[in-house]
Amino acid sequence: MEKKQSRFLNACRGLPVDATPVWFMRQAGRYMAEYRAIREKLTLLEIVQRPEVAAEVTLQPVEAHGVDAAILFADILLPVVPLGFNLEFVKGRGPQIDNPFRQETDLDRMRPIEARADLGHVMETIQLLRKELSPEVALIGFSGAPFTVASYVIEGGPSKEYHHVKTLMYSRPDLWNSFLGKITEALTDYLLAQIEVGAQAVQLFDSWVGVLNPADYREYVLPHSRKILQAAQGTGVPVIHFGTNTTTLLPLMKEAGGDVIGLDWRLPLDDGWKILGEDVGVQGNLDPLALFAPREVLAHKVRDVLNRAGGKPGHIFNLGHGISRHTDPGQVKAVVDMVHEWTSR
């Protein structure tokens, strides 16, 4: 038990806090000069495979901006490698998988994973970070959600139409569920391993799930997401369930699980919280591109999010998605300072 618990963890649990906690998705990354200096020497996968470097990158925004939580520097697709898929990050194209999942025989080449061994470097990074971080700054572990990770593996990379995903889903629901079952098992093992070695909260990223309508989410996704979310919540650590373009899916995401539900910027925060109900916390929901606005416009937008939260317990300030690569780090620090100053109790 920590002697002094972080305001972030208290907010996740719906407890009163001395100020609204704030952290950012993609808070460590290419908008920071410190990170770019490391990337000149190492690829993303090389950073992740070196725990000391991954820990250093994780800590950069904590030291620079004074955020209330550190999120492990890793990638949602790391577990697909021990599962048997070839992952490469191609400049200008993002993650690419050259042996995607497309047919029944592809199930045979999927190997069960043991996250503590297969992704031991990630576990070592978490252990290093817990030694480095003060009790006031919580460490967030994370995993991709089954639908989003499966979509990358089926499409072979990012997609706009999800042609292969939806074709498989609609034409072979039996194969879809077998594949999602294997993905869910691997991701659950990965997330629980992070918690066992020291992650104090976890976030499930379902970044692509907004391409589905509610009926398809309920039929093809909810059972798999629920499995991983219930397993994580069963450990007692706070669980954040995040997606984008999910206005129509929010009640179903709540049904799937999570102590805190992420809201993107397309829906006013108070409206989203009303849809969800006040028995869950909410995270968000400043537009990431608001960080490019003049400071006085940015301040107005930050204050609007806070006003909509109404000072109620259970709000974690964040963007509606990740920090954009060309963001001025000074704007990020300014938001942290605004939130802390305006909500200090």
Describe this structure in words.
The structure is a single chain. By secondary structure, this protein is α/β, with parallel strands linked by helices. The chain has one domain: TIM Barrel (Alpha-Beta Barrel). The chain is 47% helix and 11% strand. The chain has 15 helices and 9 strands. The chain has helices spanning 7-12, 33-39, 44-48, 51-65, 80-83, 115-118, 120-132, 146-155, 163-171, 173-197, 214-233, 250-256, 269-276, 295-309, 329-343; strands at 69-71, 87-90, 94-97, 138-144, 201-206, 239-243, 260-262, 281-283, 315-316. It has a 7-stranded parallel sheet. Helix 10 (173-197) runs parallel beside helix 11. The longest helix has 25 residues, at 173-197. It is globular, with a radius of gyration of 19 Å. 47% of the residues are buried. The mean pLDDT is 96.
Helix-strand blueprint:
Blueprint: H1 7-12, H2 33-39, H3 44-48, H4 51-65, E1 69-71, H5 80-83, E2 87-90, E3 94-97, H6 115-118, H7 120-132, E4 138-144, H8 146-155, H9 163-171, H10 173-197, E5 201-206, H11 214-233, E6 239-243, H12 250-256, E7 260-262, H13 269-276, E8 281-283, H14 295-309, E9 315-316, H15 329-343
Parallel strand pairs: 1-4, 4-5, 5-6, 6-7, 7-8, 8-9
Antiparallel strand pairs: 2-3
Distance, first to last CA: 25 Å
Estimate percent helicity: 40-55%
Order of adjacent strands in the largest pleated sheet: 1-4-5-6-7-8-9
Largest sheet: 7 strands, parallel
Beta percentage is 5-15%
Extended strand count:
9
Structural class: alpha/beta
Number of helices: 15
CATH topology: TIM Barrel
| Unreliable residue runs | none
At CATH level 2, the architecture is Alpha-Beta Barrel
Number of domains: 1
- What is the global morphology? globular
